[in-house]
Specification:
By secondary structure, this protein is an alpha+beta fold. The protein is built from eleven helices and ten strands. It folds into two domains: about 90 residues, Multidrug efflux transporter AcrB TolC docking domain, DN and DC subdomains, CATH 3.30.2090.10; about 180 residues, Multidrug efflux transporter AcrB transmembrane domain (Multidrug efflux transporter AcrB transmembrane fold), CATH 1.20.1640.10.
């Protein structure tokens, strides 16, 4: 991290008074008596109230401020011993240290807090910086100290905890929509298996370019679900159409892969070119756009290439025992041709 700063500025001097409890006990002076004396002389203390013509007023006890303007003035303060009833100089019972503190004690979520701000050093991600800070907190600070996040760090933490749910929900919705369209659970499963290939390509690109998994890369990965499934839909749908026309199963798959090569390459090339401005653009927000563009470019490129080989193989392996979508319709039409008199 670079350029660290915090909202805790020690610009206000203060005096810390430490009571020697052992000496105070030997002389018959309680800590409570010392506190009341200091409050009365150096501050103010309400001791009673009185009524005057129906109004109640507070009686405040305080010392002359002109007599206590320096730390050495504590030598003029005495407390009475409960043992000997003698006056004992307060300087014999306490020690004074001077230090600086903040003029304002900030709070966050109703807790006294110190907010730390910093810039990331070159070559490090936000996740690495936060992990380092959390390790410092566990190693250096007391157990009762808690940490929380603000700004971009808070977004990173919230997105990190919700990305798994969002990604899973997107997968389920896409799968159910495809299942309704194909009237099958096997064919959508074959199509959705193209998504892991796209994600592998996206993660590999992030690793090679030194980018991190952040809110922008997560958005790009969710977008890849639809972009990667598109190529699988082209092959599976065309294979089903060929099977409906009466073509043998394996021949239909191979021909679908051949015939859909041109549309897949064209759509993939269009998507890749549309992602180039995100990668090559400059100006404000360029780093965020570059992450999204890199994820889309690499994910679509890898999935488009592997889909031509993986999807036909998976279709043959998983859908060999399934019938074509129009198989039942063709059987009914065949029966109607064989038994025209029974047509109703």
């Amino acid at each position: 991290m670079q350029n660290l700063d915090s909202d805790y500025k020690e610009t206000l001097p203060q005096l810390l008074i430490q009571v020697d409890e052992a000496s105070a006990a030997d002389l018959g002076v309680s800590v409570q008596d010392i506190g009341i004396t200091l409050q009365s002389v150096l501050g103010q203390r309400r001791v009673t109230t009185y009524l005057d013509r129906g109004e109640e007023y507070d009686v405040m006890l305080e010392g002359e401020k002109a007599d206590y303007r320096s730390p050495s003035a504590i030598d003029n303060i005495y407390v009475r011993s409960r043992k000997s009833d003698e006056l004992i100089p307060l300087s014999n019972l306490v020690s004074i240290t001077e230090q600086a503190t903040s003029a304002r004690l900030n709070r966050y979520n109703r807790m006294r807090s110190v907010t730390i701000e910093a810039n990331l050093a070159e070559g490090y991600s936000l996740g690495e910086a936060l992990s380092y800070l959390e390790g410092v907190v566990q190693e250096k600070l007391p157990e009762d100290v808690s940490i929380d996040y603000k700004g971009e760090s808070q977004l990173y933490k919230e997105s990190g905890s919700s990305i798994v749910f969002v990604f899973g929900l997107a997968l389920v919705i896409t799968f159910l929509v495809l299942a309704a369209q194909f009237e099958s659970f096997i064919h959508p499963l074959v199509i959705m298996l193209a998504v892991p290939m796209a994600i592998v390509g996206a993660l590999l690109a992030l690793y090679v370019t030194g980018m991190s998994i952040n809110i922008y890369s997560q958005i790009g990965i969710v977008m890849l679900i639809g972009l990667a499934a598109k190529n699988g839909i082209l092959i599976v749908e065309f294979a089903n159409q060929l099977r409906d026309s009466g073509m043998e199963f394996k021949e239909a798959v191979l021909k679908a892969a051949q015939q859909r090569l041109r549309p897949i390459v064209m759509t993939a090339f269009t998507t890749l070119m549309s992602a180039m401005p995100l990668i090559l653009g400059s100006g404000p927000g360029a780093e965020s756009r570059m992450v999204i563009g890199t994820v889309i470019f690499a994910g679509v490129a890898v999935s488009a290439f592997l889909t031509l080989f993986v999807i036909p193989a998976l279709y043959i392996a998983l859908a060999k025992n399934t019938s074509s979508p129009m198989a039942i319709t063709r059987k009914l039409e065949s029966l109607q041709e064989d038994y025209p008199d029974h047509h109703s």
